[in-house]
Amino acid sequence: MIDPTVSAWAVPLLIFLSVGLFGFFIAASLLEGRKVRDRYAAAFAGGAVANGVPQNAADRRFHVDAKKLGLDAEANKKLRNDLIRAGYFAPNAVLIYMIVRTVLVILLPLAAYLAVLTYFGHLHGLLKFLIVAGAFLVSYYLGKAYLGRRQRLLENEHRLFFPDFLDMLVVCVDAGLSLEAALERVALEIDTSQRAFRINLQLMMAEMRAGKRTIDALKAFSERLGLEEAASLATLLQQSLELGTDVSASLSTYSEEMRDKRMSRAEQKAFALPVKITLPLALFILPTIFIAIMTPAVIKMSTTLFK
After folding, report:
1. Do 128 and 203 fall within a single domain?
2. Rounded CA gap, 261 and 182, in Å?
3. Taking the model in full, what pTM does it have?
4. Does residue 44 carry a pLDDT above 50?
5. How far, rounded to the nearest angstrom, does the alpha carbon of residue 53 sit from its chain's CA centroid?
6. Where does a domain end: 119, 152, 185?
C-alpha cells in the first residue's frame, strides 16, 4: 500500500501535469504559428521557399526528430496532415503531439491507480482494474478526440468561407490576372480572421513557387482543407486548363453553385430546427406549463375535499 499522505498530493499533481502538458501542446503549436506566418510572408516577399522544409536550424532539428518517433513515412505524413487540418502548422507539431500523448498515456492511468489505492481500496479487484483501464482508454483517445473536434470546427469555418474565396478569385481573374497571380493576390487579401485558410492558401502558393504544378498544388490544398468543395474546384480548374475553356466563366458558375449550396444548408438547418426543439420542449417547457395550469385546480380541489 502507498502512504495516504503521499497519494493525497500525488494524485492531484499527476492530474495537473497531464492537463498542463495537454495545454502545452495547444499553446506551443499556436505560438509556432507566428513563425510559420513569418516564413510564408518572407516567401511572398521574395525569400527562399523550400517546399515546406523548415528553414532554420531549430525547425530542421524538430523536423528530423519527428521521424524518429516510431512512425513510418506514411503514418507520419497522415498525422502531419491531421494536425494541419486541425490548424497546427508548426514544423514541430508532430513531435509535440506525440510527446504530450505519450506522457498523458502514462500519467493519467498512474493517477487513476494511485487514486484507486488511496480512496477506493475497498472496491473489488475487477472494479479497480476497470477504473485504471478506463483512464488508459481516455488518455489514449483524448488526443485523437481533440484533433477530430478541431478538424470539424475548422472544416465548418472553411465551408462557410469558401464561396467568399471563390468570389474574390473571380474578381481577380476578371480583372485580367492569371490563375496563379489571382490565387496569390487572394492569399494576400484574405482577412486574418480566417487564419487557417490563409496559411493553407499561402502554403499552396509556396509549393507552386517551389515548382509544383498548379493543379497538383490545388489538390494538395483541398486535401489539407478536407473539403469536397475544394476538391471539386481543383477538378474544375484542371478540366478548364486542359480543355482550354474560359476559367473566369467556370469560376463564376461554380461560385454561384457554392452560394446556392450554402443557402441550401442554411435552409436544411432551419427545417430541422422544429424537430430538434421537440425533445427540450417536451422535457422542460410542457411540464412547467402543465404545473402552472393544474396547480390552482389541484389546490382548489384539495381545499374542497378536505374542508
Report:
1. no
2. 24
3. 0.67
4. no
5. 23
6. 152
